[in-house]
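Review the following:
>
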Amino acid sequence: MKNRFLFVSTMALTALFLASCDWTKKPWASATDGSEDTDSVSAKQYCTAEFNDSISINEATAYQELRVDFPAEDDSSAVAQAVLAWLCDEVRSRCYPDFEGEHIDSAFAVDTDNPKLDTFADNVVTTYGRKGLQRLGNELREMANEGYEGFFSNNLAIELAEQTENYLTFTLEHDVYMGGAHGGQYHEGHSFRTSDGKAFTWKHFKTDMKPELIALLKKGLMAYFNENADEPITTEAALFEMLLLYDDPDTPENELEYGLPLPATDPWLTRDGVVFIYQEYEIAPYAFGRPSVTLPYSAVKDFITPEGITFVNGQ
């Protein structure tokens, strides 16, 4: 009973929730040809919701921190609705993974006659933030009662990284620590086509060009690891000595037919090109982080399907 009372009182005292809108949340990205004509288009309004709270149990503390960019509630476009649906799924799954089976469609319904900034922020970010913190506190309680004096933390940041005439790109950073030698970090990007809200995924790459794409990824990984290497990595053999690769019969899509699997995470679009990322332990030890490669559009355009090209060049 003592721990439960402390949980409730701390929630009441430390909760911080903010929501704000900014018409210039993010600049329009430069065009792929290097030009930067932003006067002919109007950037959409995007808002930011923040939730920060903590629970203290004995000498241990659990922290939940969220920062999420989202479309203004009066934006009824297809891309805004697609973004909101994706955001709801991400916030729910990364804040409160046991919170399954509950319908959340109403949490991001848009009322164009009475737009409210706090509809998404309060119904989704705050709801899942609080429920996720409660789950984190329940996980911490047993260790705290046994003398643990450290902390647990769940930090999620979803940011509108680029807004162009043809696509929007969000980046997601998820950092979790629940004791032990180190926590876990996950990073991804997600690109949406502005015309209809469709997401850019591996489906927009030609399967028959896989060997050529993997060859470019190998070169990119050499450059990635060379940044901190004691000796230059100039051969595939030297690269593979740094990696942890294995054939998994249960995931044939990641077979090592060409020496290296494609990343499990979908690529995303930036003004510098297409970003490919391997998550922690996917191909390398934890100490090497999340190896990533950015390939310019000129290098990958032949690997992308005609539909995928529309994300960059429009219809």
Notes: The CA atoms of residues 296 and 302 lie 12 Å apart. The longest helix spans residues 118-145. Residues 1-14, 22-41, 99-115 have pLDDT under 50 and may be disordered.
